[in-house]
Structures are given as C-alpha cells and as structure tokens.
Write the structure tokens for this entry.
Amino acid sequence: MTSRSLHCLRCARPAEGFDGCRTCAAEGIGVNAMPPLADLGGMDLSSCPGGPWGLPAALPVSGPPVTLGEGNTPVVRLRNGPDRAGANAPAGEVWLKYEGGNPTGSHKDRAMAVGVAAAVAAGAETVVAASSGNAGAAAAAYAARAGLRCVVFTNEAVPAGLRAQIDALGAERVVRPGTTAERNAAMARAVEQPGRYPLTSYSSPSPGGNPPPSSQPRSSRGTPMPTRGTSRSPTSWRGTSPGGSSTRWWCPPAGRICWPESAAASGSWRPPD
C-alpha cells in the first residue's frame, strides 16, 4: 500500500504521507487518513482465528506478520451482585473484553503488531512513537520482535512502571517536557529522517482531539456549524459523509462528539447528567 491510496475520514479528499488530512488541519481540525475499506464479501467470518492477523486480507499491509500472540483475549461476563438479583434486576448482561491479556498488557499491541509489520514492509530501520505509556511499551516490544530500532517520545508524567517496561524492551526513550503538542512536534522532526517509520500520530492539530472551545466547528464542506448554547437539548447540523450523502447530526451541549440523526431518534443519545 502507498500513501496515495489514503483518504480523509472527514472530507473524503485524497491524503498523502503520515500527517493526516492537511485540508482539514488548515481548518483547525485534526483528522486521520484511512486506506480503502477491505472487501469481506465471501469470507467465512466464523472461521476467523481472531487477533489482528485473523483476516490478513483486511489489513493494508504487505509482507509477513509481526506477532507476539496478541488478540484472542478473554471475554468476561460481569455478574450481578446479591443485591441486584430478583424481580427488579436489570435485564440483559454485560460482557467485557479483557485487553490486559495482550502481551504488553493493553489493546495497543493489536495496532503495533500491524504498524511494525508495515514498517518492515516499507524497509524502515527505525520506528518512532509518541506515547504517555502503553503505546510506547507496545511499540518497543514489537520493534524488538522485528529487529528494528525503536525511539519513543514521552514526557515526565509517564508512570514509573511503564518507563521501566519501555526501557527493558530496548527502546530509546526520549523525555520531552511540556505539552503533548510539543512532544508530537519533536516526533515530527524525528520521522523526517530517512529510514524512520511513525507508529503513532504526531500531526497538529492532533487527529481525534477536540478543537479549542473558542474555535467554531465547520462542516465537511467548510461552512460554519451552529454554535451550541447552554441548553441541555442537543443541537443539530447537516454535514456530508465521506460517501457524499447528506446526514443530519445531533450534538450534545457538552463536548464535540455528535451522533447521526438515526441514533438520536432511536434513543442512543442521552443528555449528560
């Protein structure tokens, strides 16, 4: 896969490189680019062995897998306590996926297995990550498995246990005091060097992060969206999905996470307490 096959999740424009959608970044919104969706038609999902390599055709990676046995973590049923039993007990069950059962103790192992395999396929000699802990430990472990040098940019707030884990796995831990943006900027400079492959986001604004409250959000066509007031009722705006269809979105008064109109109509949206 080449970066030319990537497109923006928000505006659907083609994207290149590893720094997200530059068009949306110019509007103050960080968005990751994604590869085309895999075609799972005709596949027997019941026979999937699990883990990120269970369906290799669904991954945007060429070349052999890099694995430490990640995935297939247990699903644990939460039991009702004695005081919740009886006629007034809530209906249904809750099951939890225990991702602590992965090799380094977090779900980050799944992504790093694929990311390091992509780095190997690209001919990289060094992988680079910016992390507050878990991602750095996973990057270090999978880089060691693949025989690659690993550099992890962190800050002084990383817990001692995770610092020790990153160090023990052979990564070069670079402590960058300051904000996350400053740490990511240091990583951005590092990945410009030849032979280096990024395993985490480093662009600014950070993809997945929220714009500052003072900035007015914009639709995927660049038009300002209505500003929410202090009411507990959600407001709505109409935007365009990557597929080109027009969709109405409902946004709660707190935060900037919005739901499609269909989810709001079905009761999936609830005002914050």
Summary: Residues 1-34 form one domain. The mean pLDDT is 78. The first strand starts at residue 6 and ends at 8.
